[in-house]
Specification:
Length: 570
């Protein structure tokens, strides 16, 4: 009996997309009587450098794997699971249109194991995110024998999923838009945002080299679209968009990592994918390589006199993060599943010093129909106890830090629907959505009861806020009068804010040359680090601006590569 009715069938499913919106993946599957003959992706809107564009991306690999294994149960590309599953789902729907059952086709296909292997290289880079790729390009430009080992099936890490922004002062792009800026101005801003907890030497080093770093990235093939503000309240504008980026966009970071990935390959650099760091090789007081393990099984031992840990932060390690910051319990994150702090743990195991930061990059935002928290909405925001804490017309990470400092697991945006924000007013008019935590009430007392906060506390907060609104002056937190929207009824709503975490601030301690320090603040021979594995000194408790993490990762990845290849460092 025939397995399929021959023909061409189309199917559509949600992928990962960008700007926090799933894309539609459309496929066409060609069937003969007993085979899947071809799978073609007709259209998609996936992230460049993650969902598509690389030799190992899902768009490039999943169709061929389906045909090769005659199965829909193939493993997703690690680090690009949503795109992989979207393609498979679209193919499933296409085949079901033929009238065939897909039950057998969906049986899991195991990942292929690798034989144990030992390699020798000049420079081993663990992690293919922004910092690892930058180090790889810099080292290859100097002629070093380089190997990048990446736990996922694609490069890019968190940077590729970000808004694709970098930050620098005094650039040609700023000048073209009539913006004056300088390294001194950026230094003063970043130090002010750090609450005195950042390392002035590292901030100075970053600010003085950020523009050259951007020009280097441009030489790799990255293109700057324009310059925009970090937040409307912060001038001068010094955030640079990748192509297609805009304000709080997401997914454009692939343009940054894709450019470096291509340049690294053009220079003859080599990757190993789907291979996770297990431990560093530590001999005679120095790091001499690493032992890694393939996702399908098999050990890779790499001997190298110089190793760079560029393995990302630990936002995907819920157990570790929530134990450090209990008020973040239940947080949301969209970082790769491989961001679990592997490099940090491996470094500590060979005597590296770890810094536990008092903060993380946290933004409290609505995941309900109100969809607020990242678009500068500046109404009354209170913590989980009903208290006002901050000038709401601040950069969202300033607001997030204030809520975190109050040990709040959530926040509330309190409104009467009389503001100048379409999303707020639309959600207010729409009323309750079943299953969502937003609350609506006819009185403050009823609102407090539904929010599960003390009525006296919430009423005192609202009364004081209304008093300041009537005065036209925020004597408590200095919010401009134009953003003092009174909360006087007759109807009330409180939109629920949940913590969202992307960048973690704690990690290995490094010096200005990217060398990992031990507990006596001495460099560990052969060991370097960059990016979220070692952001110590860059942050206080507040994330200072879009592009800080990517810019710093690229800079110190390049510095480490220059050290390894004996290049001059200014």
């Amino acid at each position: 009996m025939s397995k399929f009715v021959p023909g061409k069938y189309s199917g559509v499913a949600n992928g990962n997309g960008y700007d926090s919106m799933p894309s539609k993946i459309k496929v066409q599957v060609t069937l003969s009587e007993d085979r899947i003959e071809n799978v073609e992706i007709i259209s998609h809107g996936e992230i460049k450098g993650v969902g598509y564009g690389l030799k190992t991306s899902p768009v490039e690999t999943i169709p061929a794997e389906i045909v090769k294994h005659q199965s829909l149960g193939i493993p997703p590309v690690i680090g690009a699971e949503k795109t992989s599953k979207g393609i498979i789902k679209a193919c499933t729907r296409a085949i079901e249109k033929s009238g065939a059952s897909t039950k057998e086709l969906l049986k899991k296909v195991p990942r292929e194991p690798h034989a144990d292997e030992e390699r020798f290289v000049d420079f081993l880079i663990l992690g293919g995110g922004a910092g690892g790729l930058a180090a790889g390009v810099e080292a290859r430009q100097a002629g070093a024998d380089v190997l990048i080992v990446e736990a996922a099936g694609v490069t890019g890490g968190s940077a590729a999923r970000s808004g694709g922004k970098v930050m620098a002062p005094g650039t040609k792009w700023q000048k073209a838009q009539g913006i004056y800026d300088s390294p001194d101005m950026l230094f003063d801003y970043m130090m002010a945002q750090s609450n005195g907890k950042a390392d002035p030497k590292k901030i100075r080093y970053f600010c003085d080299r950020a523009y050259e770093n951007l020009l280097w990235l441009e030489a790799c093939g990255w293109k700057c679209q324009d310059v925009e503000p970090i937040h409307e309240s912060i001038v001068p504008w010094r955030v640079y968009n990748s192509e297609g980026g805009h304000y709080m966009s997401a997914g454009q970071g692939g343009h940054i990592t894709f450019a470096m990935h291509e340049e690294y390959e053009r220079l003859g650099g080599e990757f190993v994918f789907n291979c996770s760091l297990k431990e560093l090789i530590f001999e005679d007081g120095a790091v001499k390589g690493a032992i890694c393990e393939y996702a399908g099984g098999g050990k890779l031992t790499v001997r190298a006199n110089n190793v760079l840990l560029a393995t990302g932060g630990f936002a995907a390690n819920r157990e570790k993060l929530e134990s450090m910051y209990p008020c973040m319990k239940g947080y949301f994150t969209d970082v790769p599943k491989t961001n679990v702090g592997t490099g940090i743990e491996a470094g500590v195991a060979v005597g590296a010093k770890e810094y536990v930061s008092p903060g993380v990059q946290v933004n409290y935002m609505s995941t309900t129909p109100a969809m607020i928290g990242i678009n500068e909405e500046a109404g009354l925001i209170v913590d989980q106890h009903g208290r006002r804490l901050v000038n709401e017309w601040s950069y969202q990470y300033v607001v997030g830090d204030a809520l975190m400092r109050s040990n709040s697991n959530n926040g509330w945006y309190v409104t009467c629907g009389n503001e100048s924000y379409k999303s707020v007013n639309k959600a207010f008019k729409a009323g309750p959505t079943p299953g969502m935590p937003d609350v609506f009430a006819d009185s403050i007392e009823e609102l407090a009861e539904k929010m599960k906060v003390d009525y006296a506390t919430l009423k005192a907060t609202i009364d004081r806020y209304n008093e300041l609104s009537d005065k036209g002056e925020d004597e408590d937190f200095g919010k401009p009068a134009a953003y003092l929207f009174p909360v006087k009824g007759p109807k009330y709503a409180a939109f629920y804010y949940s913590p969202c975490i992307t960048v973690t601030f704690g990690g290995l301690v490094t010096d200005l040359l990217g060398r990992v320090l031990d507990n006596n603040d001495k460099p560990i021979p052969g060991l370097y680090s960059t990016g979220e594995a070692s952001p110590t000194g860059i942050y206080g408790t507040i994330y200072p601006g879009c592009g800080t993490s990517i810019g710093a990762a690229i800079l110190w990845g390049r510095v480490a590569a220059k050290m390894v290849t004996n290049q001059p460092i200014d």
